[in-house]
Structures are given as structure tokens and as C-alpha cells.
């Protein structure tokens, strides 16, 4: 039985607690939060758990094998490092850390101590992303040309990070999971409409060595909730609409062929708009799959689906996006 401790029992911590309590082979032994009212809620739900407002109680508990960090992002590094130094496996909420240096240090520390470092990029565990991944790997879309995501809603404004650090990790992690090629440059613009100057709307573009391109729209100030990703290949295209209750993934037999390319002024395009296919998607709770994967990785000493290196790759893009925003959209080489 793997004993887990969790620091941060806010909105997401509540989902993590429920799923880890239902994961075979582990138990969530102790929850730590600064807010006593939250700890009481946790204990009411699961009377067996211990509660504390001191992180040291988790870190110094020899019976705890693994620590989940579900605090605000600026505390991820501090708590993950403390746990790794104490010889505990660590699962960190997304994004792994607030800087590349911090993420690199955690990755190296976990490696040195032969401990599991995993990141909760939850969307990779959804049936939809798993299905799209298997279709990409089978070559169903042909050569991939673009990834275009829109993740917008009204709120939730975060007090410590801007909209790119809050929402883009979901889509960047999906993109990195689907394609092996790494971006060569990042450009990003954004705007804040509040006094704390954290951008609440932003547009991020990734350029690649090949002709692949990726674009992300992120907003906390949209009147409607949209969570859509379009993926284009030269054979087929895909719409992943996470707000759809059932038919989340649609595959379009859509494409174009360019004729007379050598004579640009005479270029002809043949458009193809064929059938639309809706694949069957496994209806599993993504967080439950993530929890199982983390516990299994500890148990078998194997790589989790999203390890520290994958988390670091996401942070590298976020960090470059931040530099670009600070320089009015300047292209930042990776
Ligand atoms: N994977 C996902 O889909 C997903 C979704 C939402 C949030 N998150 C991530 O989860 C993390 C938490 O987000 P949230 O929305 O639950 O925030 P939240 O503010 O609701 O919860 C954070 C909790 O951490 C506690 N906390 C703060 N400082 C602490 C300290 N020093 N010691 C102990 N506890 C402390 C707070 O009291 C609060 O209860 C963030 O990293 C966020 O990015 C991930």
C-alpha cells in the first residue's frame, strides 16, 4: 500500500483527494492546507484521513511514500523540492513550476534520487486525447500541418499567474504529446484589464523547423465557454470539442491539393470535403486514470505518462511566451 500526502486542498485538491481515495494500491494518508475550514471538509468526506496545516508534517512522516502538490503555482517548486529531498515520489499540478530553472532542478533531483516525478497534465488521460493520439500514430491524418486551440471562458482569474500560465499548459501538453517535433520559436501577445497587470487574454504561436504551426487562444474574459482544438493533416482533419457532452472528437475527410505549384499565378487548388467520422471514445474519468498511472509508476518503478521532462518542456514554452509578452510579441528562439 502506497501512502500519499497532499499539500493544497482547494478546488482541484478536492478532485485529487476523491480520485486517490478510490485508486487501488494507495491511500491518501494526510492532507495539508493552511485553511482549517478546508481541512474540515476533507475530513468530513473521508474521516480516516489525517489533517495538518504544516507541510513539515507530510515531509517528516516516514510512512508517507509520495506527495501531491496542489497549491498555487508559485509554491510548486518549494514543496516538490522539499518532498524529493526527503526521498518521496512527487506528483505536481500543472504547470510543473513557475520557471525553467526550477523545473530543471526538480527533474535533476528526481533523477539523482531515483524518485518518480510526475505532472498532472490531466487532459492526456482523457479518452478523447488518447483516441487522437492513436490516430496520429497510425498516420490517419497524414502529415500534420497545424494545431489550433481555443480555450476561453469567463474566469477564473488567478491571483498569481496570467492566463497563459493557467490555461495554455493543457493545450501545450496535448500538442507535445501528439507530435515529436519541438518548436523552434515562440511569439505571444496578451493584455491585462486589471490592476495586477496579469494578462487575462493572450494569443500564442509556435513555429517549427518544418511547415507545422501551432496557435493557442486563451482568455478569462469570454462571454462563452469554448474548449476546441483543430488539428489539420494533409489527409484528414480533426475537431476536438471538449464542451460537447458525447461527440467530442470528429474526424473530417477534408483536405486540399495544390496543382501547378511551379507557376504561382496559375496555382489551382482542389478542395475535398468528404465524410465526417465520429469515433467511439472511452468514457473514463481522466483524473482517475492519472492517479492510477502515478501509483503504478511508483509501484513498478517505471516512467509515468507525464514525467518531469514532459512537464519541463511545457514550462520552457510558457517561459518563452512570457518573455515574448514582456517584449510586445517579439519572437523568442527556443
Ligand atoms: N489539472 C487540472 O486540470 C487543474 C485544474 C485546476 C487547477 N489545477 C492546478 O491545481 C493547483 C491548485 O489550483 P486550485 O484551483 O485548486 O487553487 P485553490 O486556490 O483553490 O487551492 C490551493 C490551495 O492551496 C492552499 N495553500 C496555499 N498556500 C499553502 C501553504 N503554504 N501550505 C498549505 N496549503 C497552502 C490554499 O489554502 C488552497 O486551499 C494549481 O497548480 C492549478 O494550476 C489543475
TrEMBL record:
Family annotation (InterPro entries): Gfo/Idh/MocA-like_OxRdtase_N, Gfo/Idh/MocA_Oxidoreductases, GFO_IDH_MocA-like_dom, NAD(P)-bd_dom_sf
A Pfam family this chain is assigned to: GFO_IDH_MocA
Species assigned in the record: Lacihabitans lacunae
Domain Gfo/Idh/MocA-like oxidoreductase N-terminal: start-end pairs: 2-121
Highest taxon listed in the record's lineage: Bacteria
GFO/IDH/MocA-like oxidoreductase domain ranges (all copies): 129-235
Protein name listed in UniProt: Gfo/Idh/MocA family protein
Amino acid at each position: 500500500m502506497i501512502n500519499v500526502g497532499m499539500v493544497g486542498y482547494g478546488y482541484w485538491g478536492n478532485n485529487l483527494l476523491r480520485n486517490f481515495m478510490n485508486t487501488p494500491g494507495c491511500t491518501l494518508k494526510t492532507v495539508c492546507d493552511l485553511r482549517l475550514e478546508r481541512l474540515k471538509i476533507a475530513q468530513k468526506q473521508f474521516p480516516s484521513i489525517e489533517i495538518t496545516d504544516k507541510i513539515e508534517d507530510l515531509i517528516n512522516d516516514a510512512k508517507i511514500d509520495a506527495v501531491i502538490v496542489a497549491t498555487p503555482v508559485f509554491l510548486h517548486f518549494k514543496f516538490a523540492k522539499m518532498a524529493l529531498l526527503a526521498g518521496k515520489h512527487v506528483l505536481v499540478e500543472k504547470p510543473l513550476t513557475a520557471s525553467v530553472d526550477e523545473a530543471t532542478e526538480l527533474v535533476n533531483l528526481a533523477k539523482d534520487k531515483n524518485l518518480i516525478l510526475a505532472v498532472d497534465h490531466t487532459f492526456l488521460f482523457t479518452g478523447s486525447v488518447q483516441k487522437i493520439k492513436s490516430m496520429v500514430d497510425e498516420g490517419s491524418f497524414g502529415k500534420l500541418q497545424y494545431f489550433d486551440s481555443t480555450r476561453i471562458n469567463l474566469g477564473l482569474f488567478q491571483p498569481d499567474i496570467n492566463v497563459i500560465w493557467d490555461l495554455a499548459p493543457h493545450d501545450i501538453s496535448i500538442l507535445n504529446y501528439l507530435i515529436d517535433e519541438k518548436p523552434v520559436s515562440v511569439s505571444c501577445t496578451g493584455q491585462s484589464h486589471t490592476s495586477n497587470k496579469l494578462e487575462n487574454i493572450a494569443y500564442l504561436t509556435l513555429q517549427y523547423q518544418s511547415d507545422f504551426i501551432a496557435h493557442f487562444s486563451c482568455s478569462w474574459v469570454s462571454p462563452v465557454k469554448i474548449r476546441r482544438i483543430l488539428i489539420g493533416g494533409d489527409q484528414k482533419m480533426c475537431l476536438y470539442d471538449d464542451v460537447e457532452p458525447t461527440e467530442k472528437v470528429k474526424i473530417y475527410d477534408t483536405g486540399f491539393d495544390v496543382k501547378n505549384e511551379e507557376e504561382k499565378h496559375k496555382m489551382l487548388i482542389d478542395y475535398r470535403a468528404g465524410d465526417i467520422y465520429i469515433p467511439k471514445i472511452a468514457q473514463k474519468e481522466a483524473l482517475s486514470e492519472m492517479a492510477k498511472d502515478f501509483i503504478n509508476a511508483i509501484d513498478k518503478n517505471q516512467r509515468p505518462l507525464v514525467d518531469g521532462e514532459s512537464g519541463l518542456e511545457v514550462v520552457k514554452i510558457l517561459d518563452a511566451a512570457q518573455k515574448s509578452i514582456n517584449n510586445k510579441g517579439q519572437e523568442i528562439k527556443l
